[in-house]
Design a protein that fits this description.
Blueprint (H helix, E strand, L loop, with lengths): L14 H10 L1 E4 L1 H6 L5 H13 L4 E2 L2 H51 L3 H12 L3 H13 L10 H10 L9 H17 L11 H16 L3 E5 L8 E4 L2 E5 L1 H11 L2 E5 L1 H11 L6 H63 L9 H46 L2
């Protein structure tokens, strides 16, 4: 037996396998690759589209990728438009503030050095047009990006439809989906790739659906293109990304009979230029790399927002539990005091006057209710504390992959 044959899943794919995958393999695109098309400038987007169209006949996306893309597409469009609107608003705000100050300074200058009216007026006209080229350029960039504010006109969606019509997985039946969700939960708990970094089932659903399709096609090579670089997809050593996780490469071989080649979006573009004669500029590769980093930053921001909400909820439940505990102690003391008073009077509980009996029973019922309510609150607080711990752990792993 060859020294490395049984351990190939620990090694980066050789060039001959990458070439085979790019030329004849089944190529699966992850959700982040499709959504990145909205973030790229028009020329970079077109080059990525052209590379995808080169492999169109062998391209495929799992049902889960289609679901995630369509559920997140409008959010990405909104973020894109908001970014340009924020820039234009800041330019307008800065123009109002800076222009007012400059006009005042020019008026002071004109008075101090006795500028001719013509020179003063020339300077004032220049102030009024100072920010115009900047705002105009931002508008031009927004228009050249090729994305409109309308959710009914989306040329990117239309082009993706042409590529992936007939090349998108069917929705799994309920039994298969239930089994996949259970397996995803098991993997998250045991930190088995993929998906445990996000602590969500989406990554595993993408992965298992891709393996199922590769098996049905008897694909010799499965090329998986993703913008994700977390350690539940890639083997990372001292901060360097080496190759796909060995567990994933072994699973692809065992389940689908396919050799796995995992590529980041920018790496797919580089290989497209080399093996498919696609036109890919260095700027497109740079943008593709930065788009992946933007996803990472947005995920951190989302997790931080979730962490803030969970922390606030946990604090609220902790305060509520403390108040209930104090009330419980107060009612308990009142019951003990009431019973002690009755004992001092030598009155048996079954001989207590109706009014006093009603009061004692009312206090005891309230105590039971408070104890039950406090138990629920404590359980909710523990759940929020656990969620906060999990979110904090995920954030730490993202910051220190």
């Amino acid at each position: 037996m060859s020294f490395t044959k049984q351990f190939e899943h620990y090694l980066p794919p050789p060039e001959v396998l990458v070439r085979q995958g790019m030329k004849t393999g089944m190529i699966v695109f992850d959700t982040n690759v499709l959504l990145a098309l909205y973030r790229l400038a028009s020329h970079a987007r077109n080059e990525l589209f052209l590379a995808m169209e080169r492999v169109q006949e062998r391209a495929w996306i799992p049902y889960q990728v289609g679901l995630e893309f369509h559920s997140r597409r409008l959010d990405v469009l909104f973020d894109h438009n908001v970014a340009y609107m924020a820039a234009l608003a800041e330019i307008e705000s800065s123009e109002a503030g800076v222009s007012g100050q400059l006009v005042e300074r020019i008026q002071q200058l004109a008075n101090r050095v006795l500028l001719p009216d013509e020179e003063r007026d020339t300077l004032l006209r220049m102030v009024k047009t100072l920010f115009k080229p900047l705002g105009k350029r931002v508008v031009q960039l927004r228009d050249s990006h090729g994305i409109t504010e309308s959710d009914t006109q989306d040329p990117i969606l239309e082009r993706l439809q042409k590529i992936f019509d007939g090349r998108t997985g069917q929705r799994p039946n309920d039994l298969d989906l239930e089994a996949s969700m259970a397996e995803a939960a098991r993997r998250i708990k045991s930190k088995t790739p993929p998906g445990y970094k996000d602590a969500k089932p989406g990554d595993y659903l993408v992965w298992t659906q891709a393996l199922s399709e590769a098996k049905s096609r008897r694909a010799d090579v499965l090329v998986f293109v993703t913008g994700d670089v977390k350690e539940d997809w890639y083997l990372r050593v001292r901060g360097q990304t080496i190759c796909a996780r060995p567990e994933l490469a072994e699973e692809a071989k065992t389940i689908a009979g396919s050799a796995l080649v995992m590529l980041r979006t920018e790496t797919f573009l580089r290989h497209s230029a080399v093996y498919l004669d696609a036109k890919v500029s260095d700027d497109t590769i740079r943008q593709a790399s930065e788009a992946g980093e933007m996803d990472r930053v947005k995920e951190i921001a989302r997790l931080l927002a979730d962490l803030d909400q969970v922390t606030e909820a946990a604090t609220h439940q902790r305060v509520l539990a403390t108040r209930l505990r104090q009330r419980e102690e107060s009612v308990t003391r009142e019951i003990w005091s009431y019973r002690a008073e009755l004992r001092d009077l030598g009155v048996a509980e079954d001989k207590i006057e109706s009014e006093k009996a009603t009061r004692l029973h009312s206090l005891e019922a309230e105590l039971v209710r408070i104890q039950s309510e406090r138990l629920v609150v404590e359980q909710q607080r523990e759940r929020f504390d656990h969620d906060r711990f999990m979110l904090d752990s995920i954030l730490k792993k993202i910051h220190n992959p």
